[in-house]
Each structure stands twice: as C-alpha cells, then as structure tokens.
C-alpha cells in the first residue's frame, strides 16, 4: 500500500467481519477511495481520504475483516501484518455493540501490536433496540483508549468518528497484565527486539505466543528473533512453551470478561427473528428453502427483464443503419463499414441488450439476499456437503458469486485460506451458469420444455426448469470437487469460522448503487469489451467465402462428426467455440450460421426461432443436449484469464477449461445414446 504524504494522518480500520466497518469507511471517505493489493498478496484493500472539520486530512485504510491477530487466512494475515509492521498514526478497532465480548478479545490483541488505538462501538442504534446498555466511560477507563459509539447511517455519529480519528491519539497502557514469570521474561526480551512500527512489548508477546506466521513475518524483516533464552528460562521455572501460549490466551480472556462485566449493564434481548433463522438454517428446512429462493430470484429476473430487453435491443439496432451511413459518408471502405457497423456494433448491441436488463434485476436481488444475511446461511447449510467432498464450506459462497459472473466467483476464492481447497473452488466455479448463459438457457427452455402460453405462468415454469438446472450444477460441483480432492488435489479439509450475521432489512438504495457500481458496470463493460472484437471476427468469417461457401459454414461442416456424436451438430459446436469471448452470443451465432446471413441475427421472435431450429433437425433431445452443454462447457475467455491470474499456472487454467467441457461431453454423449 502506498504511504501517505507527511502532512496526512494514516489510520487503519480493523474489526471482525460483519461489524459495519466498510460502511463506516464508505460513509467517511465517500467517492475519494481506491482499491489495491498488499505487496506479495492477492488480498485487496480499500484506501480512502477525507478532510476532517479541523482541516486535517486523514488517509483511512480498510483492512480485511479478521477474527484474531493469530492469522488463519490470507485476509487475517494481511490485517495483522498491517497493524504490526506498517507505519500508522492510529488503529481504529470497530466492534459490534451487540456482541461486545468477542470484540473486546479482538481489541486486546490489536492493542498489544498497535501503540495507539481508538475503539468504535458500531451498530449502536441496534444495540439499544435489543436492550444492550454499555457504559462507554467505564470501558474507556478500563482499556485506556478513546471509545466512541456510531451508527453508519447516522451522519452525526460518522462525523464525530472522523473528527476523533483526525486528532492525535495518546499511547495506551499495556492491554493485559500476564502472570509474573511471563511479565518478567517479556521485560527482558522486549529491549532485544528492533524498534519497528509495533510496540516492542506486543512483539514479545506474539513471539512467546508462538504464532508461526507472525514469527515468519518477523524473521523476513529483521531475522530470527532472540527467543531461545527466554523459553529456556521459562522452562527452568516449569513453564513449557505450550503452557506459555495457554497462559497468554487465558489472561486475555480474563481481561475481556472483566471489561465486559464492568461496562455492560444491560443484556441483549432474545432476537425476534429466531423462528425465521431456524427455517433458513434448519437441518431439514434449510435445503428446500434454498432452491425456492433461487426460483423466486430467477422468476423475477425472467419476468421483469423480457420487455426492457426487447425495447433496448430495438433501440440499439436502430443505430446500426445511421452508423453505416455515416461511415460510408466519411469514405470508409465498404468492407470496413460492414465489419464495424454490422459486425462490431451489432454484436456489441446484442450483448448489451441481452445482458443489461437481467443483470439490473439479478445483481440487486442477489445483493439484497447477501446483505439480508441469507447467503451466509446458504453457505452454512452447504458446509457439511462440501466438507464431505473434502473441500471447504466457503466454496458455497464463491459458487454463489459465479451465478453473477464466473470471473467474479474465481476472484472471490481468495477468501479460502488453504491453497488446495482454493484451487478446487477455482477449478469448479464454471460448473455453475453465469449471467451470460442465462439468456440461452431461458430461451431454449421456453421453446422446447414449457407449453404454457406467454405470461406469468410461463415465466414461472421457465424459472422452475432453470432452478432444476442450477440444482444439477450444484450436485455436479460437489461431485467434481470430490473427484479433484481424491486425485490431483489430495489433502485433508481445513476448518473455518463462519459467522451468521443477523437477519435484517438491507438498505435498498445503497444496494442498488453498489450493484450498479461494483457488479453491473464491471460485468457489462467486460462483456462489451470482448464482444466488440468478436463481432468483427464473426462478420469476417461470415462474409469470407472461399469457393463460394461462407467460412463459418465450412468450419461447421468440419465439426459435424463431433457434434453428431454429442447429439448436436457442427453449427452448435462452432457457435460455442466462437462464443468463447462472451456466452451471450451463442444463440445469435446459431441463427447466423443456420441462415447463411452475413451479419448476426438477433431480432427473431420465438416462433421464428422455433421454426429455424426445427428446420435444421432440432427436437427435444437436441435441445436437452444443448442445454447440458450450455451448463457444462469451457468458461469464457475472461474467466480463463482470471483463473490464470489467480493461479499463475497454465496447467491449472487448462484444467479449468477441460473439466466442465469434459462433464458436458459425457452428459451429452450419454443423453444422445439413450434418446438418439
């Protein structure tokens, strides 16, 4: 992370996950923020600036959420190293006021590594509603640090926090007093340690705690620590190395319990959502609820996006002729006019029109489920199944991310600390359909498997079929995860802490803005960027006619034997191959090749499409094979590039492409053998 200017105060924002830390960060810094990676890490962090009322400029670093300063994941390692080794004027620890006891234990660990700390009790309004009463002055005296209460949606509390962080924070006294033998040895060890950003006493505690990751980070900076004599001295007093770590942990917990007992005068009321939580995370009710939620999201997406998608398609296609006329008026050669207007523009317009309305509905709905606390409960229910497959339960979360975009799902696999389990999640993410595959799936389901007339009933039936397809993808993901775990990625499964945040009504306005900024614009921009050059290539292949036959048709004929073996034809396989840049253009490519047109066909109605496909030998068996291959085939080029960036290996990238394609080929060949 880049260091701030000398006149800027640098404050690190630390805390457990789901305490509202990032909400405070966004409220303080607004649009003045950017993201980046820590040196040598793929973990991203946000950095923002704001100017306080006293004119002081503050650089705020939003550290990854952590449960402990003993790191069990890359994110926790980044947070610990930033607090222990990076220069900062203060560390602001954000705790959930509704769950202060756990937050205090984390705060004490941070205070040992950071000489200047501010404690922020966030979600204060919710704590008051739940009957939690905290004496902040008593807590401040007990810790020796400033304590402030906030609610991220209340501007006055955020302003007060920003004002406090802009002030000079005094060093705090030792956070915890340890048994006399440990205190004596810490006093002897601390002067032998280098004067780094962290408190020498805190460094001595971490070294005696035998945190191997911290010890390695320390060694990388200053060489092996001089702890051998310390452990020998403790051993002569009958205190083993294991007992040292236990005594340190026990002293911290005793201090946290004492602070909690002195500061908290009210107790938390029983949450009113207990029954709903039992329904969503229950042993028998949780699994049926998940597909029902997916069914609802898919139905809303399908039913509400069809009209806007058709309108946007007509609007964008209407700009094709004027663009061609303007290019011709400028003297652009005819072939280049065709490639730019009828190739690049037409394909890009189709991709945007097909993707934007469903994304504008799907991503906000998905984000609402995430912010409401439903996605962690899905991961909780699926954890046992992924553990049975010898992979990590966090893979359920990254798999859910893949429904929006497989590239985003692959990037999300960074939350898995074990490299083996992270690779399993990366390699299997494309086994669930991304947003780009939904239009083809929905269209084919509507054409060949839904008999109800157009309307809410038809869209509900389509959503039902799509939900069944997604359930199949989840089952295949589990099977392939198990296969990888017992073959090329053998090893023992790890364990992780999954917190179930409280069920709450998410802020709809902020969800819409975040979905637009972080997901819709990113994914749509990526799709348009790859669709534009693909449109030019497709136009050239469709209009280059060696021997009087379009090159597209020649390539399709060459693939006919393989396509026939899989229950499809060469045109279908060629459409999937040329759809590598963007899955959205597979169906239009089919129509283009079938019709022999020199431009992408994108305006055909359902009946016209049905007539075209059946005229070329399609039936339900063919449609089923195409559906299965659409679910399971090689990922798009963006996802493959993301896999390569995350793994740094061409071998793993190739396996990420081959694995889903192999599943699709096996299923299609089997269906063709049974029904063909």
Summarize the structure.
This protein has helices spanning 21-29, 74-85, 100-113, 124-129, 136-143, 155-165, 180-189, 200-208, 212-222, 228-236, 241-263, 274-281, 286-317, 320-329, 334-371, 374-388, 395-404, 406-412, 419-428, 438-448, 456-485, 508-543, 551-558, 560-565, 570-578, 586-595, 606-615, 620-631, 637-647, 650-675; strands at residues 9-15, 33-37, 44-51, 57-62, 90-96, 117-122, 147-149. By secondary structure, it is α/β, with parallel strands linked by helices.
Question: How would you portray this structure in words?
Answer:
The radius of gyration is 29 Å and the shape is elongated. Helix 12 crosses helix 13 and helix 20 packs across helix 21. The longest helix has 38 residues, at 334-371. It is 62% helix and 6% strand. It is built from 30 helices and seven strands. A hairpin with a 6-residue loop joins strand 2 (33-37) and strand 3. The chain folds into three domains: 9-165, P-loop containing nucleotide triphosphate hydrolases (Rossmann fold), CATH 3.40.50; 180-263; 286-545 and 641-657, no CATH class. It has helices at 21-29, 74-85, 100-113, 124-129, 136-143, 155-165, 180-189, 200-208, 212-222, 228-236, 241-263, 274-281, 286-317, 320-329, 334-371, 374-388, 395-404, 406-412, 419-428, 438-448, 456-485, 508-543, 551-558, 560-565, 570-578, 586-595, 606-615, 620-631, 637-647, 650-675, and strands spanning 9-15, 33-37, 44-51, 57-62, 90-96, 117-122, 147-149. It has a seven-stranded mixed sheet with strand order 2-3-4-1-5-6-7, sandwiched between helices. The chain is an alpha/beta fold.
């Amino acid at each position: 992370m880049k260091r701030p200017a000398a006149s800027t105060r640098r404050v690190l924002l630390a805390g457990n996950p789901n305490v509202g830390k990032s909400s405070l960060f966004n409220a303080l810094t607004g649009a003045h923020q950017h993201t980046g990676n820590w040196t040598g890490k793929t973990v991203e962090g946000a950095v923002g600036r704001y100017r306080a009322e006293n004119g002081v400029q503050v650089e705020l670093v939003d550290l990854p959420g952590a449960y402990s300063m003993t790191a069990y994941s890359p994110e926790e390692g980044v947070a610990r190293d930033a607090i222990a080794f990076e220069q900062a004027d203060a560390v602001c620890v954000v705790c959930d006021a509704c769950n202060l006891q756990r937050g205090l234990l984390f705060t004490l660990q941070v205070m040992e590594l950071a000489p200047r700390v501010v404690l922020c009790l966030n979600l204060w309004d919710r704590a008051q509603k739940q009957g939690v009463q905290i004496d902040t002055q008593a807590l401040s005296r007990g810790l020796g640090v400033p304590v402030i209460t906030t609610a991220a949606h209340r501007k006055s509390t955020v302003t007060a926090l920003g004002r406090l962080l802009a002030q000079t924070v005094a060093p705090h006294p030792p956070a915890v007093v340890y048994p006399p033998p440990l205190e004596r040895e810490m006093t002897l060890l601390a002067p032998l340690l280098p004067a780094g950003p962290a408190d020498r006493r805190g460094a001595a505690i971490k070294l005696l705690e035998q945190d191997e990751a911290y010890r390695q980070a320390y060694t990388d900076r200053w060489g092996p620590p001089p702890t051998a004599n310390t452990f020998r001295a403790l051993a002569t007093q009958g205190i083993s190395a294991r007992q040292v770590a236990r005594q340190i942990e026990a002293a911290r917990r005793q201090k946290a319990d004492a602070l909690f007992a002195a500061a908290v005068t009210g107790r938390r009321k029983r949450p009113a959502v207990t029954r709903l939580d039992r329904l969503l995370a229950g042993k028998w009710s949780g699994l049926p609820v998940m597909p029902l939620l997916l069914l609802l999201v898919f139905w809303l997406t399908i039913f509400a996006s069809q009209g806007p998608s058709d309108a946007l398609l007509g609007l964008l296609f209407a700009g094709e002729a004027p663009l061609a006329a303007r290019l011709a008026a400028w003297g652009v050669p005819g072939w280049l006019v065709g490639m730019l207007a009828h190739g690049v523009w037409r394909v890009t317009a189709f991709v945007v029109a097909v993707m934007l309305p469903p994304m504008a509905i799907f991503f906000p709905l998905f984000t609402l489920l995430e912010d409401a606390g439903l996605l962690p409960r899905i991961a909780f229910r699926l954890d046992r199944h992924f553990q049975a497959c010898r992979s990590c339960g966090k893979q359920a979360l990254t798999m859910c991310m893949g429904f929006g975009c497989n590239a985003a799902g692959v990037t999300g696999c960074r939350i898995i600390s074990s490299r083996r389990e992270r690779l399993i999640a990366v390699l299997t993410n494309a086994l669930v359909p991304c947003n780009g595959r939904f239009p083809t799936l929905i269209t084919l389901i509507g054409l060949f498997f839904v008999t109800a007339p157009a309307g809410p009933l038809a869209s509900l039936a389509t959503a039902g079929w799509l939900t069944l397809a997604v359930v199949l993808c989840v089952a295949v993901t589990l099977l392939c995860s198990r296969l990888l775990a017992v073959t090329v990625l053998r090893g023992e499964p790890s364990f992780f802490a999954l917190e179930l945040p409280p069920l709450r009504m998410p802020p709809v306005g902020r969800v819409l803005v975040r979905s637009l900024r972080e997901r819709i614009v990113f994914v749509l921009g990526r799709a348009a960027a790859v669709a534009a050059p693909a449109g030019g290539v497709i136009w050239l292949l469709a209009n280059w006619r060696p021997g009087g036959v379009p090159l597209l048709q020649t390539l399709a004929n060459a693939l006919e034997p393989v396509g026939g073996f899989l229950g499809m034809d060469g045109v279908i396989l060629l459409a999937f191959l040329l759809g590598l840049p963007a899955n959205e253009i597979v169906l239009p490519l089919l129509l283009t090749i079938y019709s022999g047109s020199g431009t992408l066909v994108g305006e055909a109605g359902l009946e016209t499409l049905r007539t075209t496909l059946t005229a070329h030998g399609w039936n339900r068996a063919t449609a089923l094979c195409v559906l299965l291959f659409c679910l399971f085939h090689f990922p798009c080029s963006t996802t493959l590039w993301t896999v390569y960036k995350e793994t740094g290996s061409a071998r793993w990238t190739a396996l990420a492409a081959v694995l889903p394609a192999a599943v699709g080929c096996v299923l299609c060949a089997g269906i063709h053998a049974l029904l063909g």
